[in-house]
Amino acid sequence: MISAVAEMYNIHPQTLRLYEREGLLIPSRSNGNTRLYSQDDLEQLETILNLTRDLGVNLAGIEIILNMRRRMRMMQEEMQAFVDYVQKEFLERSEHIEEGSKNALARINPLHLIRTRGGGR
What is the Rg, in whole angstroms, of the alpha carbon atoms belonging to the chain? Predict the structure, then answer.
């Protein structure tokens, strides 16, 4: 509830309402329309308070920072999904190649790159 969170973080409930109006903090609501703060909401609030108290960032700056963090998190998730896909494809193709070479008349060892002297010529 808003009063418990305000007391826990030593801020006025109006400050929490302001953060909500600005879209910086969006707690869920109960059937009776009471604000309910999740662990994620509290972590977001801690970030906001660190930015305002410790770094002196204004609300517009906080909004920009939070949006950038959100986008970075999304990009990291997309990159991880891409890496997972490439690894899966590589393993599947490697297994397929190994399966095919079991029935071959002669095995061929994989090629190894040999570094030459003279600038790679």
Answer: 27
Q: For position 98, which CATH number holds?
A: 1.10.1660.10
Q: Domain tally for the chain? A: 1
Q: What is the pTM of this model?
A: 0.67
* Per-residue pLDDT reduced to its tens digit, 18-36: 999 999 999 999 999 999 9
One-letter amino acid of 120: G
Q: Please report where in the chains the tokens 């297994």 appear, as a residue.
A: 95
Closest C-alpha to 63, from 19, 13, 14:
19
Q: Taking Cα atoms as reference points, which of 19, 3, 13, 7 lies closest to residue 57?
A: 19
Please check whether residue 47 is in contact with residue 66, taking contact to mean a CB–CB distance below 8 angstroms.
Answer: yes
85-109 average pLDDT score: 73
> Can you say whether the dihedral through the CA atoms of 11, 13, 16, 17 is positive or negative?
negative
Work out whether strand 28-29 and strand 35-36 pair parallel, antiparallel, or are unpaired.
Answer: antiparallel
Q: What's the full length of the chain, in residues?
A: 121
Please, is 78 exposed, middle or buried when counting C-beta atoms within 10 Å of its C-beta (0-12, 13-18, 19+)? Answer: exposed
